[in-house]
Design brief:
334 residues; alpha/beta; 8-stranded mixed sheet; elongated
């Protein structure tokens, strides 16, 4: 037999990409994983589409990773990514996006509050010509004061600033076409703002009501600290939306404000000196006000500069914001 022919015969065909990629960040969800995966299996079997399910263990301290190993051994569609430590939900979702090979990418929570049966409805909406379909927990099963009201306020503000009117940015259950999400780089707590990034790239975004179940097992990972982080990320989103290609506008604006305040303070000092006879030495308040204002502006602008430097550091060197300890099941064909 011809050696060339033998070589060609031994070549394997490339593994076809699945139609769907589900990815779920996991943090200490040992009680929920098996029931959640059973629901995912049922939903995928009803769809009849090729799919992969990517679990991203975000530094769990319970038996979550062990259970995920067992699930991966039982279901050839499952891949598991174990991060070295807890990087946060945004980094875990970024790891899932980077690993996904499907044409449609669907993130969801692993705590049984999202219902995999809604995947079919998300896909039906995508087929109407949309690029992003966001879930809306219309009948949200959470506490009114601690969760619902802050969420309503936050979603209204995000919709206004981001320019994409959605009722529920915090719902993890969404569906994306690969081309509108594959180049998105995520930082901080910005996974919830992916529809905004996609819209900036020209994607057609919509939302549909989805089921939401009360948490029955495990402990919620959300707290007031996350709300504060989202506020800072929202400031960054506004800055990136308005000044990413023209930062001199925002820096110049604050510079002009500081300049005119200094002029005003100087003029007022002269008025006090030459009209009211008050010595410069006896009027420390204008100096204090100028110094404090200058310091606050420096901190704010340095924060924006640092944000830009971090993004440049990661993207110019093609660095991810997470480190993978191991990958399980990626060499198994679906």
């Amino acid at each position: 037999m011809n050696p060339v022919q033998t070589k060609q015969t031994n070549l394997e065909k490339p593994e076809p990409a699945p139609e769907l990629s589900l990815f779920l960040p996991v943090l200490d969800e040992e009680e929920n994983l098996r029931p959640m995966h059973a629901k995912i299996q049922e939903a995928l079997n009803e769809l009849g589409k090729t799919a992969e399910v990517i679990y991203v263990d975000d530094g769990s301290t319970d038996k979550s990773l062990q259970i995920l190993r067992e699930i991966a051994a039982e279901d050839k569609r499952v891949r598991v990514i174990s991060l070295r430590r807890n990087y946060g939900q945004t980094a875990a979702m970024s790891a899932g996006i980077d690993a996904a090979k499907g044409d449609i990418l669907i993130p969801m929570d692993a705590d049984l509050q999202n219902d995999p049966k809604d995947i079919a409805r998300l896909l039906d909406k995508l087929n109407e010509g949309f690029d992003v379909v966001s879930g809306w927990r219309k009948n949200r099963k959470d506490k009114l004061i601690m969760r619902k009201i802050p969420s309503w306020i936050a979603n209204s503000v995000i919709s206004k600033i981001g320019g994409v009117p959605l009722h529920d940015y915090g719902c993890s259950l969404k569906a994306y076409r690969r081309e509108v999400i594959q180049d998105v780089r995520l930082y901080g707590e910005m996974h919830r703002f992916i529809p905004i990034y996609a819209s900036w790239a020209g994607a057609r975004v919509t939302e549909i009501p989805v089921d939401h179940h009360a948490r029955t097992m495990g402990k919620s990972k959300y707290g007031i600290s996350r709300t504060i982080k989202v506020v800072f990320d929202l400031m960054t989103i506004k800055f990136m939306a308005s000044y990413q290609t023209k930062p001199i506008y925002v820096f110049g604006t604050f510079g002009m404000i500081a300049f005119f305040l200094s002029i005003f303070a100087g003029i007022w000092s002269f008025v006090l000196k030459f009209i009211y006879g008050v010595s410069f030495i006896l009027t420390p308040l204008p100096v204090i006000a100028i110094v404090l204002f200058a310091i606050s502006m420096q901190f704010f602008l340095m924060g924006l500069l640092a944000e830009m430097l971090v993004r440049t550091y990661h993207e110019s060197q093609d660095k991810t914001i997470y480190a993978v300890r191991e990958k399980i099941g990626f060499d198994i064909k679906v």
